[in-house]
Design brief:
Layout: H1 3-15, E1 22-26, E2 31-34, E3 40-43, E4 46-49, E5 57-60, E6 64-69
Antiparallel strand pairs: 1-2, 1-6, 3-4, 4-5
Length: 77
């Protein structure tokens, strides 16, 4: 996925009210689950993923293969 496409998709998902979790999958099969809109930040071609209790991980925005919604069954939250 191109960086500008990823930037557009990321903005759309982060602006969704109420926020819905989503997964970002990279070409190396690494997956990041965004449980809130602040965990994935894009700065140029560099993206970062970090949650409060974990170390921040960085990835090339051009290495994103797909972004998919996380389906949470009712009552499983």
């Amino acid at each position: 996925m191109r960086r500008d496409t990823f930037a557009y998709v990321l903005k759309q998902l982060n602006d969704t009210k109420p926020f819905q979790p989503f997964t970002v999958e990279l070409v190396n099969s690494v997956r990041y689950i965004a449980r809130n809109p602040e965990v994935i930040i894009l700065d140029g071609d560099l993206a970062s993923f970090g949650e409060l209790d974990d170390a921040t991980e960085y990835f090339d925005a051009n290495s994103v293969v797909r972004v998919v919604p996380v389906i949470i069954p009712p009552g499983a939250e």
